[in-house]
Amino acid sequence: MKAKEVPQIxxxxxxxxxxxxDARGFFCRTFDADVVRSVGLDPAAFVQDSxxxxxxxxxxxxxxxxxxxxxxxxxxxxxxxxxxxxDLRPGSPTYLGRAFFELSGEAQATLYVPAGCAxxxxxxxxxxxxxxxxxxxxxxxxxxxxxxxxxDLAIDWPLPVTSVSERDRRAxxxxxxxxxxxxxxxx
Length: 187
Known about the structure:
Elements: E1 2-5, E2 13-16, E3 20-22, E4 25-27, H1 33-38, E5 48-54, E6 59-65, E7 72-78, E8 80-87, E9 98-104, E10 110-113, E11 117-123, E12 128-134, E13 143-145, H2 166-169, H3 174-182
Antiparallel strand pairs: 1-2, 2-10, 3-4, 5-12, 6-11, 6-13, 7-10, 7-12, 8-9, 8-11
């Protein structure tokens, strides 16, 4: 497994495993504490694992957390997704930077998304399973959502959006979220 920096998002990393394939399928390590530690992250900081399943065209995001934020490791364990990270940390050298990835069950790469960054993805296959390893217990009161179709972000989602949650459908624009932040509102 090797770690690569993501230049568009300061502090983000892509962990690429080395799958061993044969006639039975493949085997690969998807998490390695030593490799995580080598880029300055504490592997013991991750306290919760979650998984989502989506069908082709489903879009989830853009999500982040208020307060101390939430760092996460994201991996597509089955299928393929178009993954997006937006840096919303005001002091970051890559503030408002965006990075795009195709994560897949074949590659099993894991993306580290730093706290303070918005994250979302779209399923590109009939079924996509996405695994998350999160560094804080989830608190729904801290959930923040930004419109996936925000014109200021101008994200070119690869497929027509077939389904989003009601929360994502009603999400405010990036400008509204940033204004609420400046005014000291929790969301």
